[in-house]
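Dear colleague,

Thank you for sharing your sequence with our group. We've completed the structure prediction you requested, and as agreed, I am returning the results in plain text so they can be pasted directly into your records. Please verify that the sequence below matches your submission; if there's any discrepancy, let me know and we will rerun it promptly.
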Amino acid sequence: MGSDSFISGSGPAPDPRPLGDPAEAPNAQVQLGARIRRLRKERGLSQRVLAGDDLSPSYVSLLESGQRNPTDDVLRILADRLQTTPAELTGNSELATPASVETQLELRWARIALYNGDATDALAPLRRLLDNEELGPVERSEAQLLLATAHELNGQLFEAVDLLEQVGPRLTEDAERWTAAQTQLCRCYKEIGDLDRAIDVGEAVNRRLGDQELTDSAAVLATTLGGAYYERGDLARAAHVLSRVLQQTERLGSHRARGGALWNSSLVAAAENRLNEALMLAERALAILGESDNTRNLARLKVAYAWLQLETGGDDVEATRRLLLHAQIDLQVEGSAVDLAACLTELARCDLLIGDFEAARRTATSAIDLLRHAPTIEGARAHAILGQGLILSGDVGHGAAAMRAAAFQLQDMAARREAARVWRDLAELAAHAGETTLATEAMEAAAAALGIVPRSVRALLRRHDASNEEQEADSSRH
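Please find the predicted C-alpha cells below.
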C-alpha cells in the first residue's frame, strides 16, 4: 500500500465534494476530523491501524486535519473500527434511533468497565445486548468481543474461547480486527494449555497475512505464537518466529510488539541456558515497555522478569519480591486472573527461597483459587510451587501428590518441557528428603516427558541380568 495513495486496493474512492452548504463545509470537516482523532486515541489505535487494508495512513491524517471529506462507505468503515456509528461520528445525532443510541451506551459502559479492570461489571450490559434478537451484526460482534475479554480477565477461558470461535468468521473482511481477535484466541488456547490448537490458530493467521507489511496486531500475534511454541518445547521454531518478528518490529516501532518479542526471545535464550543473553533481552524489553503507557503489559513483563531473576539464581530475593509487589498492585486493577495468578506464583517462590514455607503455601493456594474456572498452565505451575512448599515443610506425601498432578496436567497440555521441569524438581526434593525410590521414579518421569525412554539400555540390562543368572545357575550345578 503506497503512502501517497488515499485509498488502496479496490475500496471506495474519496468524495471531494463537501457536504451541505459549501460555506459550512470546512467547519464540519474540521469537527469530523477532530472526532475521528479523539476516538482513535481513546481506542488506542494508530493511524495505520485505523486505516487497515482499505485506507492509507496519509488519508486518515488528512481526514483528521479536516482536509478531506469521507464518502458514506469510508464513514462506515471508520465508524466500525472506532466502535461507534456513522451518525455519532458525523455529529448527526438526529439520524440515530433511540435503540442505536442505547446500544452504543451499553457498549461504551462495558468498555469503560473493562478499561477500569471491572470485568464483572461489564458482563451484565453485554449479556443484555446479546439477548436482543434485533441487535445488528456489527454491534453483536463488538459485544461478543468485549464479553470474551471480560471472561478472559475473569479467568473464564473456555467461555472466552467459545465466543472468539463464534465471532472470528464474521470479522474476516476486516483484517486488523480479525487478526486482533485471533491473537486473543491464540492466547486463550495457550493459557488453557491447548498448545497445538493455539499454534494452529496462529499459523493460520500467518498464512493468510503472507508476506504483507507487518502491522502492530500481526506482530503481537507472531509474538503470542512464538510463546506457544516455547511452551510446547519447540525452541527452534519459537526462535525462528520471534527473530523474524523482532526484525520487523524494529521498523514498525510498536512498543508492545517489540517488548513482547524481546521477552519471548529472552525465554528461549534462558531455556537454551544462554542466561546472560536472556537477562539482557529481558532488560531491553522492560526498557521498551517502560516507555509505553500500557500498564498491564508492563506489569506482566515485571512478573516475567522476576521469574527469570529467580531462575538464574539472583541473590537479591527481596528486590525481586518488591518488583512483584509493585506488579501485583497494577495487575489487581488491570490484569486478568491468569496475570495475577502468575504474579502470586512467583511471590510464593520468593517465600520458598526465604524459608517461609507457610506463606508460600498460602500464596500458591491463592493463585490456584484464582484459576478455579478452568485448568491452565499457570494453575499447574502454582500447584507445583505448592507441592514444593509442602515437601520442604515435611509433608512429602501431599507435596509429591501436588507436584505429580501438576506434571501430569502439563503433559496433557503438551507442555512437555515444563512437565519435565516439575518432575526433575520433585526428584531433587525427594532425594533431599531421603525418598530415594520417589526420586528415581520422578527422574524417570522427567525423561519420559521429553520422550527419552531408555528402551535399548533396558533391554541390554535385562539380557545382562539373564546372562548372569544363567552363569550363577551353571556354577551352582557344578
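Summary note from our side: The radius of gyration is 27 Å.

Kind regards,
the structure core
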